[in-house]
Fold this sequence. Notes:
Elements: E1 9-12, H1 16-28, E2 33-36, H2 39-48, E3 53-57, H3 65-75, E4 83-87, H4 92-100, E5 105-108, H5 113-124
Parallel strand pairs: 1-2, 1-3, 3-4, 4-5
Helix pairs in contact: 2-3
Amino acid sequence: MPAPSRGPILVAEDNAISREILLHQLGLLDCEAVACADGIRAAEAWRQGAFAMLLTDLQMPGLDGYALAAVIRAEERCGRMPIVALTADSCAADARRCFDAGMDECLTKPASLSALRGIVERWLERVPPAPAPQAAQGRT
């Protein structure tokens, strides 16, 4: 499983039950996670933190998963964060649209714990650990 220094997983999911299930599953996998109820909040959280990966629902009000992925890809400056779409549909057209928006993989909901484990392990082993925080400099 991912090392703690990699940073938390960002979850963007507007359905409260789905969000709680994902957080519970990630906890079972010993992954730290931060959840947002919509794409706008997820984009704001991404801008403020160092996340190892994003799991995003595709259909959310305001900023959907496609737009969220496009925003992140347009603003990324320090490497490429893995983005995995969470979708209730397993249609090939949705997958193509996900990849066109800059996502790396699609996971059909509800995801089994083993499927989620496979996604997390596959993508986080490709992510370099986040840099260690610098020690605060004392005042002179």
